[in-house]
Amino acid sequence: MALIFKKLSRRSLPSKRLPPKPAKPSDGRVMIRLVGLQPMYMPGDKLELEYRVVDVDHSAIVAVECSVCWITEGKGSEDLGVHFFQRLSGDSLKAIDWSIAQRISCPLPVSPLSYEGKLLKISWCVRVRFFLSDGSELIAQQPFYLGMITREV
């Protein structure tokens, strides 16, 4: 993970050390980690992942959606297919300890396989969305390949 720091001039630096500001919901980040640490899975494999949110007031979380989906891109319209979907809201959120990563697993389908052609591309990803009480969303995606990657030459 890369850290990016804003460049400040000497005039903009405070002379006294100020207490840190509390994080606003929009300052948060969502992190996804594929447990197998591999970018390629075979049809029928079990996909295991962990996700977590940081720098967010946990009481501001209204709902969480986690999905495993495939996306087609090309000359025509883009399509999104959802293979796995889980939504948490209401009382189910209160039982979750957000200080630890949440784990999900699902078996992968036999198709469609990942493909990178000149006219069509099929890609897979894990997407996690946090809906916050101020109306904002935090979204993260982690791509992966299903099957041996096929490229058109």
Commentary on this structure:
Mean pLDDT is 84; it is low at 1-25. With 153 residues, the protein is an all-beta fold. The chain contains 1 helix and 10 strands. A hairpin with a 3-residue loop joins β7 (115-116) and β8 (120-132). Strands 2, 4, 5, 7, 8, 9 and 10 form a 7-stranded mixed β-sheet that branches. The protein has a 3-stranded antiparallel β-sheet with strand order 1-3-6, with no helix packed on it. The protein has one helix spanning 91-94; strands spanning 29-34, 40-41, 46-54, 61-74, 79-89, 102-107, 115-116, 120-132, 137-146, 150-151.
Rg over CA atoms, rounded to whole Å, is 19 Å
Structural class: mainly beta
Pattern of helices and strands: EEEEEHEEEEE
Basic shape: elongated
- The level of helicity is under 10%
What is the straight-line distance between the termini? 33 Å
Work out the strand percent.
over 45%
Q: On the 0-100 scale, what is the average pLDDT?
A: 84
Low-confidence stretches: 1-25
Number of distinct helices? 1
Main sheet record: 7 strands, mixed
Write down how many β-strands occur, each being a DSSP E stretch of 2 or more residues.
10
